[in-house]
Recover the amino acids of this structure.
């Protein structure tokens, strides 16, 4: 289990975890749900959720039964929820005790901290997750969170869990959204949201918050996970409530509340990155007619500038799950990291597409997925040996629905979990290795082998054999083509 790193205590009892310094993840500030739930007012004051009720914490950070009972008594039951308008109308302002905020240290999330304190009168616990996005901003993040008014910062390394429990199941399922998108952002949101629910339980929070806007998919992905894992948690989405309309408003609000404004240069693109991919949106990309600029890409070289010599890479797979690269067994995150490096230097995995967002609008995005593209190519080729025609067709049809569920934020939906059980079962024999040739943005399969291969050279050969008698084909063709022959006879009056 990934470790937590808490850098300040909100509770009377000392509450600390330790973890190695790592890169951090942020709640993507660019996206957040049009479906809004309303809760009746909580039946307990903030003071009633503090003091002795919070006195007991177990050594591993678990909350005592007494405190849990107090929180449960204060929270509405699921049956008490009702559909309404914004969070302003929920009657929660002044009623929340503690909120866990998905935090990046950027402008938006830095402003959300004082905004929550000002408008909800609650303590704010900042949460930062590392899913391999490569942002080098962990140093000083505690100071940023404290300066913004947070009482605690929690950091969690989710890279191995992200790859093992989210990426690899999607890979095994063959899940691709709208023919191209390998679901990089879609898979990352539920693992982050799940960790937020865990942190909320550990620190006794009664709400969670994110910095997603109301136009995108991420708001749905976060909130559906919250609903599925802890329906009693309240959700606050500032971008759907506040009067801040853009970067300048956010800067003014930060100055007014003495919040240090990040001095990083604002990118002209909206980007989201993790160990699986890096996405680019905005600026000239908003016009589908515009070609992306060469200097926009960050994970992969331009195929024109890639090495003039191809590179061969061998992928080992066991039951549909990658386990090795060039004969070296690696952990899930390490394996993907290695393939990102290999694929990136050969310009592998660039995708430019116009997709249909869940909220209804179309958007244009450019994705870099070097390691993931290599893995998908290897998995498909191995399945060509190990799956029969009927199984492959059913799997491919279900993969479309599987991808749709993941894209829509329904990771913890029983339907996806049931489909995943099917994918796991039929992939039991998808074991073997595939050798790929990488050259200037292209992938060519050069070798595939499996101890469970259904391919038989003695049957497929043009030479005569005992198993397949070519003379049998005549009767098969007559029976197989009978409906077509009858139709033609009808037309000819025969």
């Amino acid at each position: 289990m990934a470790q937590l790193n808490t850098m300040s205590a909100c509770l009377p009892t000392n509450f600390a975890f330790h973890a190695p310094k790592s890169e951090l993840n942020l709640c993507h500030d660019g996206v957040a749900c049009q479906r809004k739930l309303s809760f009746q007012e909580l039946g307990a004051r903030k003071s009633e959720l503090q003091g002795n009720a919070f006195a007991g914490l177990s050594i591993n950070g678990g909350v005592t039964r007494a405190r849990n009972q107090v929180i449960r008594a204060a929270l509405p039951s699921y049956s008490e929820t009702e559909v309404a308008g914004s969070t302003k109308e929920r009657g929660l302002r002044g009623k929340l005790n503690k909120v866990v905020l998905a935090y990046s240290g950027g402008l938006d999330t830095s402003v959300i901290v004082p905004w929550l304190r000002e408008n909800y009168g609650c303590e704010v616990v900042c949460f930062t997750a590392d899913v391999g996005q490569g942002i080098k901003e962990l140093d000083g993040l505690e100071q940023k969170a404290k300066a913004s008014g947070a009482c605690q910062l929690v950091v969690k390394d989710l890279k191995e869990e992200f790859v093992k429990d989210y990426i690899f199941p999607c890979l095994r399922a063959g899940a691709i959204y709208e023919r191209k998108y390998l679901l990089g952002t879609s898979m990352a949101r539920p693992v982050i949201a799940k960790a937020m629910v865990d942190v909320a339980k550990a620190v006794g929070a009664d709400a969670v918050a994110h910095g997603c806007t109301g136009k995108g998919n991420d708001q749905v992905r976060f909130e559906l996970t919250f609903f599925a894992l802890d329906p009693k948690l309240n959700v606050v989405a500032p971008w759907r409530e506040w009067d801040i309309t853009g970067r300048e408003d956010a800067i003014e609000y930060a100055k007014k509340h003495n919040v240090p404004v990040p001095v990083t240069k604002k990118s002209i693109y909206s980007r989201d990155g993790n160990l699986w991919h890096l996405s680019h949106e905005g600026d000239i990309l908003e016009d589908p007619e515009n070609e992306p600029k060469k200097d926009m890409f960050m994970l992969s070289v331009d195929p024109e500038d890639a090495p003039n010599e191809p590179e061969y890479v061998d992928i080992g797979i066991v039951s549909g799950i990658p386990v090795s690269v060039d004969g070296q067994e690696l952990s899930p995150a390490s394996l993907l990291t290695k393939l990102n490096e290999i694929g990136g230097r050969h310009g592998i995995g660039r995708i430019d597409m116009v997709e249909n967002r869940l909220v209804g609008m179309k958007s244009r995005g450019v994705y870099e997925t070097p390691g993931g593209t290599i893995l998908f190519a290897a998995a498909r080729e191995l399945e060509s040996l190990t799956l029969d025609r009927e199984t492959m067709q059913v799997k491919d049809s279900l993969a479309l629905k599987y991808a749709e569920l993941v894209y829509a934020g329904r990771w913890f939906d029983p339907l996806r979990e049931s489909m995943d059980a099917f994918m796991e079962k039929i992939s039991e024999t998808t074991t073997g290795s595939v050798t790929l040739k990488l050259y200037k943005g292209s992938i060519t399969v050069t070798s595939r082998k499996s101890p469970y291969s259904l391919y038989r050279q003695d049957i497929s050969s043009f030479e005569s054999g005992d198993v397949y008698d070519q003379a049998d084909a005549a009767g098969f063709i007559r029976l197989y083509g009978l409906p077509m022959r009858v139709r033609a006879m009808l037309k000819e009056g025969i």
Summary: Residues 1-9, 11-89 have pLDDT under 50 and may be disordered. Residues 184-203 form the longest helix (20 residues).
